[in-house]
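Think of the structure tokens as a kind of shorthand, similar to the way a musician reads notation: each symbol stands for something richer, in this case the local conformation of the backbone. In the example below we present two proteins back to back. Begin with the first one, reading the sequence and then the tokens, and try to describe in your own words what changes along the chain.
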Amino acid sequence: MKHYAVTYSDSLSHHGIKGQKWGVRRYQNEDGTRTDAGKKRYSVYEAKQAAREGGLIGYAKYRKSHYGRKAAIEEYKSDKKVKKLTKYRDKLANKADAKAKNFRERADEDNAAYEDLKNNGKKSNTYQKFVQDAASRTYNQVLKDYDTETEDENGNIVINKEQMRKAKTAAAAAALGQAALMNTNYAASINIERLMGEHKQAAEGYMDSAKKWETAHEELMNTEISAIMSKKDVKKAYKQARGW
């Protein structure tokens, strides 16, 4: 029979790992900071770890060594809320900016119409469009006043073609008369003066509105978003920025 003897030692030996060289630090410097290889190794590891855990828990674990799990979770929630509220603020600010641009465009149109009337008088495109619109209204009104409907032998309501022809002829004559009257020097001068006043007043009103919305946009974009705010607070800031 064979006998085996077991001996015990108080010493602990370590024979290294494959690829290790004594006195050479692969991932960490003497002061505890990471080498280039260490930064690459552990940044990839941490990123993979955070992605593997995902969402809130992954973020908390990723930041655990710096803030602690609870603090990391609170920071995650806070950052997420601030981003969401900032996005909502930007949405309202963009809305204000769009309104400002719209009012500026309308002001530019009225200013252009004013200058057109001022420089070209009754030959201006603005005044001729005004005349055409008035003539069109006259045409439609005369056509409406004519009784062009009749009953056929079956009692159905149909259009009397002869009456319709007469109605169109009369309406066209009335429209031409209206246009000719409005193009007389006397009528044109009165209408042009009135139209210039209307376009100038409209342009000033639109410009005032544009400036208000531009101010609202600027003030809203300067509003600092914090985690203690709510969506109602951002909406309130939007209304205050508008000022009306």
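Once you have a description of the first chain, move to the second and do the same.
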Amino acid sequence: MSSELDRLVYDWNGDGRAARAAYRAVELNDETLRDGLQGPSVRNPPLEVKKRLLHLMDELGIDSADIGLPGASDRARKEIVELARETTKLRKLRPNQAVRTHPLDVGGAIRAAAEAGVAIETCAFIGSSPIRRYAEDWSLDTMLKNVETSVSSLVKERLPVMFVTEDTTRADPETLLKLYETAIGAGATRICFSDTVGHATPDGVRNLLAFARDEVVRGRAVKIDYHGHNDRGLGTVNAMAATEIADRVHGCALGIGERVGNSSMDQLLINLYLEGVIDRDLSPLVECRREGVPQERPRARRPRVLGRPRERARPGAAHRGRPDERRVERDLLAGAARLRSDARADRPCHGRSEGERPCADGRTAPRTRRWIEPTALARIIIVWCIGSSRRS
């Protein structure tokens, strides 16, 4: 039955000549109080504000929320206990907590659940991509052992477990199969596929989740989650694509989070509503935007495509002591560039551009970087002279 709007507006989104989206109503997991708070322009709000946010999430029909990292500190664990107790007053929303596959984190999660008296779903994560393993100097055997020990310890305490691989969208399928099979064998009932550095496109998300459904889960009673970031500006559209296959999709209020942020939960809700996939009251989003999300100062977040990053992750238990795999990647690319430059060194030069100096044989070559700039050298000499005069 057509409406007045249908007569005034033709919707090419549903035309179906070339493609038709298969978006579905899926479970939603809000990461605002964990991954969202790792954004550098976001402050850690008081406990009462966090409790209010949980109530707003519940009013929006969100199914679950990550309420923290119990291994970060005693204070973080105590807040998780209070927030988990608060969820018992809610209609729908249930809590989860994030842990590394490390004994200290696992112990903190078990303790938090026991103190709260709530079986908090525990999300155990580990890096999976080759570049992450290179940065950490991990062997696959060690990783598999850590996964099995951590998941089985949590299951033994009767906690529901979701196993998460970080940087899944840059990991090879053979490694992923081994990691997920180990976790499922140890008792994990959910598995999460993460676009940790915002690498994936919508097609990449569909390919990855089809692999999850057809080659990992294979009809077993294991649910699939998708967790995305917005580095390429594709956070929302990737989350929408994930609803075609995944059982649960993650996001943060206003898209806050590490670097340029996570998939935006409010945009995801609005787009699912506009597509006719969900029908619910979204008015609580107004309060979330006005006062709920704890932004310290407005900053223009942009996808990390060009220029220096304007957002960096706030250090936490998940990052403390971790080598920067992005720096490793840059170093590897820089090394490859130097090799290419050396290979071109014997080629004739056909002109001179800015930043190049003439060679002895008339060719041009890049200017070499000075170890100390003149202004810096002058400052060093002045400081040394002042120190010498004082000593004399």
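Compare your description with these statements about the second chain. Confidence is low (pLDDT under 50) at residues 346-372.
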